[in-house]
From TrEMBL:
Cross-referenced SUPFAM superfamilies: Amidase signature (AS) enzymes (SSF75304)
Protein name: Amidase
Residues of the Amidase domain: 37-434
Annotated source species: Caldimonas mangrovi
Matches recorded under InterPro entries: Amidase, Amidase_dom, AS_sf
Top-rank taxon, per record: Bacteria
Lineage of source species: Bacteria, Pseudomonadati, Pseudomonadota, Betaproteobacteria, Burkholderiales
Annotated region (Disordered), positions in chain: 133-158
Amino acid sequence: MHFDLIAARSAVHSGERSAVGLLDAARMASDTPANRHTFVRTFWEQAEAAARAADLAAGSAALPCLPLAGLAVSVKDLFDVAGQPTTGGSRVLQDGAPAAQDAAAVARLRAAGAALTGHTNMTEFAFSGVGWNPHHGTPPNPADPDVPRIPGGSTSGGAVSVATGAAWAALGSDTGGSIRIPAALQGLVGFKNTARLTPLEGAIPLSTTLDTACAITKSVRDAVLLHEVLAARQVRANRRPLRAWRLAIARDTMQDGLDGTVANAFDSTLQRLRNQGAQIEQIGLPELSQLSRIQATGGFSAAESWAWHRVRLEVDGERYDPRVAQRIRRGAQMSAADYIDLVHARRAWIAQVERQLEGFDAVLSPTVPIVAPPIAAIADDDAEFFRVNALLLRNPSIVNMLDGCALSLPCHAPDQLPVGLMVWSSALHDDTVLAVSLAIEAALLLEGA
């Protein structure tokens, strides 16, 4: 196991390492060229106060050692941090007043001892899986030091902060894959919990139906810890061996159009898991192909973002990223009847898919079907941008529509660009998904992933 947040926490609690020293290292990492577009704003002073408090607790039997031990956690520029503006990666809100109080998720991180280091860059208003931001620059994917590649979005800067060592974990959101896409493209772990388990108060909404507050981490066990903090609940992850879980592969839709690197990594991963005794069965899920028809009028994100942005677009539309504004404005064409039909269609679709998944503990799929393309390929080409965006969102957004839970973990060889394996299930099977992911991560490490 690499040096993850839990290992760093143990070192702080034992006095082997200081939280202040680890925070200094994170700050140095944030100042490197790799992070030139990662943060929208930083708040190191309050982070240092949290780190000092953690070191005091480690040296005193009278003070409690908190779960996040003064370690660096970045916050997507979507969540309120008391005393700071929240701008959603946009210029439209840059003149807004500072937040009066922390968002609920931020408050839970702070209470757990996190050293909150800064607001991270993101796709404007979280409306894209690419990670492109014309206002603050697009954070380059650190997985390829030679070719600037997209980071994935919308939690782009959050993922880069973790991948470069500028944070141990990143608070973000996932509406159609915004945690899992950048995690997959950067070789990290991203867990999207069942949406209702984590609070969204104090966060700029994209889709009030689909938004989920969750985190990007370095390991699956870190994902368990962050989920416990954010959801204020204890995960009961059954530590059964890999062979004790019954796993499915979705034959339909999710394996369509894989590029060579993803296809090879996915096939190799399945074989390695089978070598470790995993029971994996391929199943048909024709219901997945129905989503394009169900969302033909625009979907929840278009309708619900239009409700939030319509006045701002009328007044300040020229300051929006045109690609984001175009997607939001699609919601203007949806009628109330369209929206009600969508709600009912989703409910019926969820029931159909859940019936198909009965008897399986989790489903395995590629998180996204492609590796990260160069930023240059999408920078000035709207058609290519929207093609890549649709590909990136296709697999993870299925889980959001299912109201389910999913974790992406890396499954590529060391000499490959990052590829994510998505472990997913329906609503409130979070602990099972986490338990299966722990077993898969252990098996892949054993096989020398």
